[in-house]
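Before the break, one more example. Copy the sequence into your notebook; we will annotate it together after we see the structure.
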Amino acid sequence: MSGARLSALATLRGQIERIETAEVVHQHDRVALGHREADAALKGGLARAAIHEVFCEGRQGAAATGFVTGLAGRVTARKPLLWVRQDFSELEAGALSMSGLAELGLDPRRVVTVRAADVESALRSAADALACDALGAVVLELWGEVRQFDLVASRKLTLAAQSSGVTGLMLRMAAQPLPSTAETRWMLRAAHSPPGPASMPAAPWSAWGAPRFDAELLRNRHGPCGRWIMEWKCDECQFSEPSTYPQPVAATPAHRPDPAVLRRAG
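Here is what the structure looks like once it is written out:
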């Protein structure tokens, strides 16, 4: 076969693969995140049976982890969640807090963690897990620039997710986005949380309200991109638009006379 025919055949195979990939994604359902504008951009919500990437700078790791936890809680549909981490990630960002996951609304009894010695082991573990339809979602956490995660590795994870219906969430800390087969790609930053309810007793933890995320949708294969402040409702286990909290108005001190009275007296 001539070189021209081989090139044409490769082009046709690539076009068929792109068409089939788009059709498979649309066949699976989407789960609404709860944030109206984000769900509208996502055509109804986050697509299951696909790969979604969440990037952050190194110092934003806690915010990105919380955001991924929220996404996982929405897509798992009460099935187990497998979280794959490199040993290096734990040294840099610390261990996952099961009590912290519970406070965000994710049942730690449904979370299985895997510690991988290196990137290759982490990628293999994630690919095997994505092929298991007993799981609801797989989180693959990779730290820094990882040359092993290229288009070939990304396509392998995407095909595994599409065949099983399991959703893959890539948590990329201190890394720059590169071309991949991901359905969506996010850049996460922490946002200011609202104050806690005034009725709560004064306590160190009462100064913080619901977690808020500055979420920028950098890539959306089937819709527009955007950037929103997304608030996580721990009790409802869903995102929402930021709540409005009226600022209290300071009352006039009781020991000071009314200025109007002073004017009349003068």
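Helices lie at 3-27, 36-41, 61-75, 87-93, 98-103, 119-130, 151-164, 259-265. Confidence is low (pLDDT under 50) at residues 246-266. Try to locate both features in your own notes.
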